[in-house]
Specification:
This protein is of the alpha/beta class. The protein has a domain of 288 residues: 3-Layer(aba) Sandwich (Rossmann fold). It is built from ten helices and 18 strands. Strands 1-2-15-13-14-12-11-16-17-10-7-6 form a twelve-stranded mixed β-sheet. Strands 3-18 form a two-stranded antiparallel sheet. The protein starts with a strand and ends in a 5-residue tail after the last strand.
């Protein structure tokens, strides 16, 4: 289960266990596991020094906060950990005082508004007995992590290359006799899959086991009951002809300065994101969830411009809180730069149509937390499948846009849709036991 604990404040998630659950029953009778070193985050990315012990690691916890006196030098900033203990973390001394620009002021105002919600909600979720047994310190596998990551960068880029090459081939509608769009199906009768067309056909693995396929000389694991289309925003027609969806999760490649400088990842500008044909993909009252960075410019764009453009009513605002296995935020909560949380905006497509047999679902709560140990891999977000299950009808058709992995029961789309399904991200179970 991805959901380890459900509380009034939100959910405690186990991303690694969910991935491993999706790839059970591999066709080659060999058990694989996602490399655990990618989730072996024991210490914060920015170290903090504190003079108090972690009360969550004690046998009995106190309901009152322990007082802490910390003196910080001019090169340090005061922050608090998950338990509310004051701490200092180092920062570089700036030669001249720099006034905050409007974007930074907006970010600070927003952080002040949600800070207590993040802090207190995370503490409540972490105090669950199930949660405390979830996060033992992990032993990284014996492989060379840096070498493995370097190999990933090479293979990842080939997916984008495949999409660019596919643009040179005219895209034709491939229809079957009953008028439904054609798909390529991997089933028990499929002995081998060397000639997949992942660009103009939606690929479905309808088997109860994981299949291994080869694309451009690279091997990928396809979990059971998954479907995907490998393309970019200019080649979405096969997906539009596929089916209507009851839930859509979107992780847009937002434009920012670091992405522009690195030139390693492609991004879309706001006007390009608006062109995503959500109304054509969504069924009536479809649930739409969009990941947003902490830039207030992007948050306002989704709420005030993007959702109205797609005819979506804003429903709720959730927060993904990233922690270490030592029960600390991955970044100091009050860090002036990176924050230990990201935002998820939920809405529902407006619909005037009335469905007599419409299945009643739970109302979507606002201000909920998704707390988990994050992956070290760039933009590797936890699955929302089990979290959203209670708010959509049973047997719903679900879609993830700009996906980088596959999950059972869902359709995935993007120009790196198989990125984290690459065989090199996995290792044999015997190698970690």
């Amino acid at each position: 289960m991805a959901v380890v604990h459900r509380g009034s404040n939100g959910w405690m998630l186990d991303h690694l266990t969910y991935i491993n659950k999706t790839i059970l029953n591999c066709e080659r009778m060999k058990s694989y596991t996602f490399r655990p070193e990618y989730f072996d985050i024991v210490k914060p990315h920015i170290s903090s020094s504190t003079k108090t012990t972690n009360p969550l690691l004690k046998t009995k916890t106190s309901s009152t906060k322990e007082s802490t006196e910390v003196s910080c030098s001019g090169d340090e900033t005061i922050s608090q950990d998950i338990q509310g203990n004051t701490a200092c973390y180092s920062r570089k001394r700036k030669r001249k005082h720099k006034e905050l620009n409007q974007g930074e002021l907006d970010a600070l105002t927003y952080h002040i508004k949600v800070r207590d919600l993040i802090l207190e909600g995370t503490k409540c979720l972490l105090q669950s007995e199930m949660t405390k047994s979830l996060l033992p310190r992990m032993n990284a596998s014996n492989g060379d992590h840096n070498s493995c990551l370097a190999n990933m960068i090479t293979s990842d880029s080939r997916l984008a290359e495949l999409c660019e090459l596919a643009k040179q081939v005219p895209l034709e509608d491939k229809e079957v006799e009953d008028g439904q769009s054609a798909v390529q199906v991997i089933d028990e009768e499929t002995q081998s899959v060397p000639d997949l067309d992942p660009f103009s056909l939606v690929t479905e693995n309808i088997m109860n086991c994981t299949r291994i396929v080869t694309l451009m000389g690279e091997k990928y694991l396809l979990p059971p009951h998954t479907s995907f289309l490998l393309s970019d925003i200019t080649r979405m027609r096969p997906l539009l002809n596929y089916k209507k969806f009851d839930a859509i999760v979107i992780d847009p490649p937002w434009e920012n300065k670091s992405v522009k400088r690195s030139n390693r990842y492609s991004y879309l500008q706001s006007w390009q994101i608006k062109q995503i044909p959500i109304p054509a993909l969504a069924s009536p009252e479809c649930l739409v969830a969009t990941w947003v960075t902490n830039r207030q410019k992007h948050l306002r764009f989704v709420k005030e411009e993007l959702y109205p453009h797609w005819a979506i009513d804003l429903v709720a605002e959730w927060y993904w809180v990233k922690i270490t296995r030592s029960f600390e935020f991955v970044y100091p909560l009050d860090s002036p730069h990176k924050k230990p949380y990201e935002i998820l905006i939920l809405g529902k497509v407006k619909s005037s149509a009335y469905c007599q047999n419409r299945e009643e679902t739970e109302p979507i709560p606002d201000q909920q937390l998704l707390v988990s140990v994050p992956s070290k891999l760039h933009s590797h977000k936890p699955s929302l499948a089990e979290v959203l299950a209670g708010y959509i009808r049973s047997n719903a058709h679900c879609l993830e846009l700009f996906a980088r992995s596959l999950q059972p029961g869902w359709t995935s789309w993007g120009n790196e849709v198989l990125k984290f399904q690459h065989l090199d991200y996995f290792c044999s179970v015997e190698d970690v036991t």
